Amino acid sequence: MSNDEFNMSMRKFLKQVGVTSQQEIERTVREGLPDGTKTLDVKMVLTAEGTDLNHVVTGKIDLG
To answer: What's the pTM?
Structure first.
């Protein structure tokens, strides 16, 4: 696989992750959260089968 093919494949995967993650977060908020919830604590875990990759990103989403 060439470097260009690798970059395109990785970008396609990351775009899918971003779009589907946003859709799921929006659905969760739409379906309702406990009254008074002002932030949503989120965590994304990235693993790759057959490797030791285990990357964790945490954050808060302000619900205004």
So the answer is: 0.84
